[in-house]
Amino acid sequence: MVYKDYLQGILFEEIGARCVFVRLERVVEEVLARGDYASDEARLLGEALLVVALMSSGLKFSGRISLQLRGPGPLKLLLADCSDAGGLRGMLSWDEDRGERPPPDQLRACAGAGSILTLTVDPTDGGQRWQGIVPLEGDSPAEAVAAYFERSEQLPTRFHLAMSKSRGAGLMLQRMPDRPTDGEDWNRLQQLFATASRDEILDLDGETLMRRLFHEESRRLFPPRELAFHCPCSRDRVSEVLVSLGEEELRQMAAEPEPTEVRCQFCNQRYRFDRLDLTALLHGEAPQIGPTVH
């Protein structure tokens, strides 16, 4: 079956390394359709989606992996995440009061001095949540994540991404953890990896591209895994967020004449809570199934 959006990987067992290919078309279209993004912003968000999708190839359990960038600069937040089932979402927001907006390809200038990259692995089966928090390095999501793997995990990682309007594709080459890798073999893989052109990455399917790059290497090909846009927000989850604000805040909301409306930043779904709903939350009860505003 041919997928529009998918991951596919190969393993170099004798060398102790892997290469993963990702293609995103419908996912990028759906994410961009839910926000008012200029073309350069779309490129930045698309690259973040490609990187987090590639990282998700390492998930060995049910859960999500996320990439988040926060800083004091005009780029207030960049966030993308992907589940083990292939569900992707992402968003970015700007704060124009923080100064003039640099071009998005100058990521450190956009985020500001002291900006932070956070990578999170959040299991859904009761496992322990893990976070890596480091200062931002690099001027793209790929450079930032590669620097994190190199410095914090001692796991050499290379990205090779290509974006075109509302579609993108990319490759990730990574050493396997706890596997000795001969320096000469690793250097050879990097050299072959770097020969991929932008057009090849965008136009070729993963199997063809990786075979073309590594045809002389011993490798094992894995089947493709489909990806799709998916936002797990729900009325129940929004209710939990409202309860976490505290009793006083809920009482103030309930006293307002108009219903409280909460909008998901990822998919723009709106959830409305009237006075009865908020009062039910105050008493620890589930609110009535209220209207969902699209």
Order of helix and strand elements from N to C terminus? EEHHEEEHEEHEEHHHEEEHHEEHE
* Alpha-carbon distance between the two ends: 33 Å
Classification by helices and strands = alpha+beta
Report the sheet with the most strands, covering strand number, pairing sense and barrel closure: 6 strands, antiparallel
Oligomer: single chain
Task: Please state roughly what percent of the residues sit in beta strands, choosing from under 5%, 5-15%, 15-25%, 25-35%, 35-45% or over 45%.
Answer: 25-35%
How many domains make up the 3D coordinates? 2
Rounded to the nearest angstrom, the radius of gyration is 21 Å
The total of helices stands at 10
Give the overall shape, derived from the CA principal axes: elongated
**Could you list the spans in which at least 5 consecutive residues all have pLDDT below 50?**
none
Going by CATH, what is the homologous superfamily of the largest domain?
Hsp33 domain
Protein name: Hsp33 family molecular chaperone HslO
GO molecular function: protein folding chaperone; unfolded protein binding
Pfam families: HSP33
Keywords: Chaperone, Cytoplasm, Disulfide bond, Redox-active center, Zinc
